[in-house]
User: Fold this.
Amino acid sequence: MYTVFFIGTAGSGKSTLVSALSTWMDDQGYDVGVVNLDPAAEYLPYVPDIDIRDRVSARKIMKQYKLGPNASIIAAVDMAVTEAERIKEEMEVVGAPIYLIDTPGQMELFAFRQSGAYLIQKLSDVHSLVVYVADAVYVQSIDGFTTTMLLALSSRIRFKKPQILAVNKADLLPEEALTNIINWAEDPDTLLDSIDLPTYDKEILRSIANMGGFVEPLFVSAKTGEGLDKLYYQIQLHYTGGEDAQLPP
Ligand SMILES: Nc1nc2c(ncn2[C@@H]2O[C@H](COP(=O)(O)OP(=O)(O)O)[C@@H](O)[C@H]2O)c(=O)[nH]1
Ligand SMILES: [Mg+2]
Assistant:
């Protein structure tokens, strides 16, 4: 069982991308399972095989304990920890060779809390991967690009898993913005020369960039389907470790 977790800031398009990629895989004839781990999702653009909301619902917790929206998500994710074992069993029963796992909208309530990392650890099998989903509209500015790279790095440190950086909503980017982003990733000096920061902060970024901290983005669009084939290829590559073997169909 290969588990692929979609992590990213609220509204970056995690749920839409999980939907688009699972549909794409279906169309290609690949067997794929989908898990929703967002206890606060009001609407999902896909039908999950396994849904955390069947076990804990942020909406119910909100009413029952009179909590605000963020506190209820935190409580729900904490409660989900006790369900982890059963969710894993359910995944084994469904028996898909690969699972796309959607996570809560607000990344910080999940990624930067102990229970979120624990859930991911619990649901990971021998092979697992994180797709960090960034929003192309945000990434097109220098500051947006830089902070996205740092957030993606935080996610990598947090989950200690191989990670792909998917820049979603590429359909909204003009050609020029795409070129800028590619240049910044390939040659961070072009970015560091023009970023408006005190020298000290710039040097911190330079060190991170020189150590390979600015990873190559993969442009995708959950809306038009652009780049889904490349995303799947990258996911597959991590599974096989660069070998020629195929994921089980
Ligand atoms: N133009 C465009 N909009 C997108 C794309 N992916 C998602 N969206 C929109 O972005 C919004 C947030 O998407 P959602 O999947 O709910 O984000 P999540 O919070 O990360 O799960 C929705 O209105 C989506 O329709 C995309 O590739 N292109
Ligand atoms: Mg979502």
Notes: The pocket of guanosine-5'-diphosphate (ligand 1) is lined by residues 8, 10-16, 105, 168-169, 171-172, 221-223 (CB under 6 Å). The two ends are 12 Å apart (CA to CA). The longest strand covers residues 127-135. The chain has a mean pLDDT of 93.
